[in-house]
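Researcher: We're reviewing a set of sequences before deciding which ones to prioritize for further study. For each one, I'd like a predicted 3D structure that I can look through quickly. This is Putative dihydroorotase. If possible, include the structure in token form so it fits the rest of the review sheet.
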Amino acid sequence: MYPQGVTTNSESGVAADFLEAYSLVFAAMEQYDLVLNLHGEVPGSPPSDNISLEEAFLPELKRLHEKFPRLRCILEASRFPSLTAQYYTDTLQHCSTAAALDASASNFAALILKHMGSVGTITAHHLYLTRDISQADPLAFCKPIPQTPLHRDALIKAVCSDDPKFFFGSDSAPHPLASKTQGRQPVPAGVFTQPFATQLVILALQEAIERGVIEEHEVTQERLEQFLSRSGRRFYKLPDPAAKGPYKIVLERKGETIPTSIRSADGTLEIGLSRPTVPIFSLRWLS
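Model: Here's the predicted structure for Putative dihydroorotase, in token form for your review sheet.
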């Protein structure tokens, strides 16, 4: 569910009074155990300099849960790094934006992630981008807009937490290279990561180890599988892929780097990639 006008191509999104307008839809989704994917952001300008559009959405989230307590929701945890940090109390002290929230809304939002039917997805690119990088590089510009290094590191810790409430969601958004680099305003929001999403997650974790944010022993195969595959499937109540066959990936160092761009088979469409020329693992599937 996209609020109207909050990101690229969302002009036909839902209006500000979505809770009343779609209450029958939400009731039916709750009754039949359907999942609501939320782009948690209010349209327009934030109510103050100390509160982001994402944080201003939290009271709406509170109202939604109060009215439909059994409705299972997926939020973008990448959109709420302050909330993600609040979930982990050891990083709470670093989050100035969280302190600006109304206490009841903020605490309730943390509570629904911890104990209720909501989860949060984290993208590959929000594990390495910051606001400065995203705003300087059109190929790295996306929404939610990445925030500070401390908020990025809170997302890193969530990935390594072994907590099923947080799992991978690519939010990979291909835009023609020309629309990103030839001065179009506004620059379309979105980072194209899909061909290298797994490698970018692992690269971000490697860099976090080098910065001392996490330790090497925290990045295990079991935790990576849970974040990238198992937790999301379980939340959607999909069968375990192991029941159908031993689907595995193999990551190897073969000198591969991220290309500058990728072209369609007929050569008519070119999509730019963030982090070009960066060394990554090569990935192949076993089945």
